[in-house]
Amino acid sequence: MKKLGKVGAVLALTLSMTLLGACSSNNGGNTAADAGKTDSAATKAPAADATKEAKDITLGFSQVGAESGWRSANTKSIQDSAKEAGYTLKFSDAQQKQENQIKALRSFIQQKVDVISFSPVVESGWDTVLKEAKAAGIPVVLTDRAVDSKDTSLYVTFLGSDFVEEGRKAGKWLTEQYKDASEDINIVELQGTTGSAPANDRMAGFAETIKDNPHLKVIASQTGDFTRAKGKEVMQAFLKANKDIDVLYAHNDDMALGAIQAIEAAGLKPGQDIKIISVDAVKDGMQAASEGKINFIVECNPLLGPQLMQVVKDVVDGKPVEARIVTEETTFTSEQAKEALPSRQY
Ligand code: AHR
Predict the structure, then answer these.
(1) How far is the CA of 322 from the centre of ligand 1 (A)?
(2) For residue 188, which phi and psi values (nearest 5 degrees)?
(3) What is the pTM of this model?
(4) Which of 86, 147, 215, 235 is geometrically suited to a Cys-Cys bond with 54, CB 3.0 to 4.6 A?
(5) In this structure, which topology does domain 6-161+301-330 adopt according to CATH?
(6) Chain segment 122-147, per-residue pLDDT in tens
């Protein structure tokens, strides 16, 4: 091996340090990107600034809107947890519009926040702005909802529920209820916001689970945008168009609660004449379940604030973060809802 000499040795040292730096400080990381976001064992190692104290951390958070009880509980959890952690929170409400979220993300980039987090209103169309965040060296944490970007190095992690599994839980309960059915069971479905991860995934998980029973038939499926008002409006239309509805599957409690008003106005008994399954398990939904108006609720936990603040700290400190953090959730029958209701936090 040739001798390097003094200048050569310094150059070689500089080069090897640069290479090492490039491997460990990938800012939003790509170590887990190769493994894909569904690999829960994979971790990403974001850029480190371990010297930052909590009071110096600024988190930019773009919320979907205020469309449901779930969303209000989620907003409160994030705001309370940021306060408790001592971070500065820049909070922006997108009012269910992707363009507002993109504007908010760009404004966070301009303000040079330490970490950006957001709950994407829809799954597609984020690559450009995520690349801008990456170029600015600002790590992005997805909470609650995912994006469909192929390049998973554009965000550090996705913290939230497994929506496909939630749909499966709803479908499994229904399949069990009607396992001995000898006639067709007519199901209507109230979908969440078109193009959103929970609407896509809850529909897919449900369809996958009921497909083996040919009597379980989805006769109508339409968006109710996750709101009570739309849930009521669409259910009214379903009732008008279909004489014989056996089951309503609503992608959230708010739409189920709106639909209950429509069902009662039509002179029918929710939970009896029409069986109802919904998702979320917020207080109002649990109240309706405890009264027998909703038969089964799949829980979707909105209290993501404490976990998000921990992830933000880890990201700022340059600690490895799991590429996918799945929230733990349960289900409630009417009886179980009655028991759980008094201690329900949201
Ligand atoms: O993304 C979570 C979903 O969004 C909740 O189930 C729904 O209520 C909300 O609006």
Answers:
(1) 23
(2) -115, 145
(3) 0.87
(4) 86
(5) Rossmann fold (3.40.50)
(6) 999 999 999 999 999 999 999 999 99
